[in-house]
Amino acid sequence: MSRPVSRIANTFARLASEKRKALIPFVTAGDPSPMITVPLMHAMVDAGADIIELGVPFSDPMADGPVIQRSSERALKFGVGLNDVLAYVGEFRKTNQMTPVVLMGYANPIERMGMKVFAERASTAGVDGVLVVDYPPEESLGLLETMDAAGIDVIYLLSPTSSPERIKLVSAAARGYIYYVSLKGVSGAANIDTSDVELMIAKIKAQTKLPVGVGFGIRDGDTARRISRFADAVVIGSRIIQEMETATPDTAVEKVRELLADIRKKMDS
Fold first, then answer.
1. Higher pLDDT residue, 219 or 152?
2. Among all residues, which ones are annotated catalytic?
3. 156 pairs with which residues across the strands?
4. Percent of the chain at pLDDT above 90?
5. pTM of model > 0.90
6. Which of 89, 145, 243, 253 could form a disulfide with 125 if both were Cys (CB 3.0 to 4.6 A apart)?
7. pLDDT band at residue 191, thresholds of 50, 70 and 90?
8. Cis peptide before 164 (omega within 30 of 0)
């Protein structure tokens, strides 16, 4: 039996018909407080987000830079875990059935819950995709089969150091979209060279029909616009979290809404 067309595939198809590119914001669930997560998700959609990447707080987020590490630490102080993240998605789905939600995180919380239980609960909550940083495609056949059965897309990472062989492997395994990490190092690192990124995106697109999104190092609307000329999606995380760090709990949601609305406007210009 073939899988139904996912919300992620539908979103990219709609954007392609509109000749627009996807804006994918990342926030950590439970940061800056658990009460803000669902209103923040709705505000990001209102500001022009097409897909939401929701981080699952984890005590050792090895691929994340200091900004996202701090967001995980703040969420963990509130006791936010995978159960809570699934509850936030379920709450979001009560009034939004259209916007895809991708959970981004690490293998440990999924394995503690049990992969099959996680897949069933994530599907019921309305999760559309998972990006598990420490499940490389060589070691994730079980993940892929379990998520496929639950109708959840498994998204994989590629980077500037990915070999042609690895690009081919990821292209064969990935669902939904491929996330290209534009920088060597952790999230939130320095500015990116868009010409280098463009060359790598062309190599990836030669191997896959899936959309390719670019993240890490995108901090403003101008960079997002340049990236969106050749990528299918722009992922922004650290900059959003920095906006919330300089805000009060009362102003955090509005600051993020304003930032994303400006980025969306420049991407569409």
1. 152
2. 53, 64
3. 178
4. 84
5. yes
6. 89
7. low
8. no
